């Protein structure tokens, strides 16, 4: 398991831990995000139809960034506990964003109890190696405060798009 770290500028008193597990096989990557928290103190989107929607990052969601080699192009996926999702392609750092509306919906399953929420998703990945991954989460509490979680926080402000945030390499 790999642990996400909170950004120091955005503490999260209701969150105990965010861990994730990865597995890859036949051009697919499965990511399991496990949020351990006082869930009653968080804004967790209710289950929905699992549509492609923009602006999921403004509320509780989990994110996956994929860069082939040293980039500069990369893919961004957003996964909401509601089952909604988004996908964007960037040609460089926050540049040339394009939505792929024809992309098939990723498989998203959510499990929840009083102490944790687990989101499992599977996406297609390029067979090109190496891949650099950025894994992150945006967690909103009931007061509207947002905390930012990632494998690495390379700047004084939360920035999941920063190339140094792509901290996990798949060979």
Folded structure, characterized:
By secondary structure, this protein is mostly beta strands. The chain has a single domain (2-170), classed as Immunoglobulin-like (Sandwich). It has no helices and 13 strands. It has strands at residues 2-3, 5-6, 15-25, 28-37, 61-68, 74-79, 85-90, 98-99, 107-112, 116-124, 131-140, 146-150, 168-170. The strands form 2 sheets. Strands 2, 5, 6, 7, 8, 11, 12 and 13 form an 8-stranded antiparallel sheet that branches. A 5-stranded antiparallel sheet has the order 1-3-4-10-9, with no helix packed on it. The radius of gyration is 15 Å and the shape is globular. It starts with a strand and ends with a strand.
Question: How many DSSP helices?
Answer: 0
Global morphology: globular
Q: Any guess at the CATH architecture? A: Sandwich
Low-confidence residue ranges: none
Beta-strand content estimate:
over 45%
Order of helices and strands: EEEEEEEEEEEEE
First-to-last CA distance: 18 Å
Largest sheet: 8 strands, antiparallel
Radius of gyration: 15 Å
Number of strands: 13
The CATH class, by name, is Mainly Beta
Keywords:
8-stranded antiparallel β-sheet, 5-stranded antiparallel β-sheet, globular, Immunoglobulin-like, mainly beta, about 170 residues
Topology:
Layout: E1 2-3, E2 5-6, E3 15-25, E4 28-37, E5 61-68, E6 74-79, E7 85-90, E8 98-99, E9 107-112, E10 116-124, E11 131-140, E12 146-150, E13 168-170
Antiparallel strand pairs: 1-3, 2-12, 3-4, 4-10, 5-6, 5-11, 6-7, 7-8, 9-10, 11-12, 11-13
